């Protein structure tokens, strides 16, 4: 047995690793900023202006964070009766890798707009996305947690 019994949910599905949840949350950072700005009523527009001076980048970030939000929601809804949810979650690894690649290219575009000038935010974002992409690509626990088990 590769995984302990505590790593399975009540339906027999392997729970997603914590690093996968953190990576999905990182890729949905525009949604986090959007919710925080909405929760702070008076200073919400100031927060959005500071973090996303160009509103089109906020909308693009919201669109690129949507697959991560959907996967976080759907992975918690898995059960043997919901075959369509299990099928969608089984596509989680390629969808996550595609989202990582698109956010990585967006960050490279930010570097291009700054004419290659170093920025800690862009550098840390690129490194985090690269590490998360390698983790999703290589991790056996990610692969096993996203696939649908053969339930009898």
From TrEMBL:
Membrane-spanning parts: 20-37, 57-77, 84-105, 117-137
Pfam families in the cross-refs: DUF2919 (PF11143)
This protein's UniProt keywords: Membrane, Transmembrane, Transmembrane helix
Entries under InterPro entries matching the protein: DUF2919
Protein name: DUF2919 domain-containing protein
Protein's organism: Vibrio hepatarius
């Amino acid at each position: 047995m590769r995984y302990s019994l505590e790593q399975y949910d009540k339906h027999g599905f392997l729970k997603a690793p914590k690093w996968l949840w953190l990576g999905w949350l990182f890729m949905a950072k525009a949604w986090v900023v959007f919710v925080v700005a909405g929760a702070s009523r008076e200073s919400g527009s100031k927060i959005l202006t500071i973090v996303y001076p160009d509103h089109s980048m906020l909308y693009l970030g919201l669109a690129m964070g949507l697959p991560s939000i959907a996967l976080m929601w759907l992975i918690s809804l898995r059960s043997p009766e919901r075959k369509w949810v299990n099928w969608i979650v089984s596509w989680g690894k390629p969808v996550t890798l595609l989202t990582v690649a698109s956010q990585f290219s967006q960050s490279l575009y930010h570097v291009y707009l700054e004419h290659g000038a170093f920025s800690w935010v862009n550098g840390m974002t690129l490194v985090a996305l690269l590490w998360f992409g390698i983790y999703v690509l290589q991790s056996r626990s990610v692969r096993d947690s996203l696939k649908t088990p053969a339930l009898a």
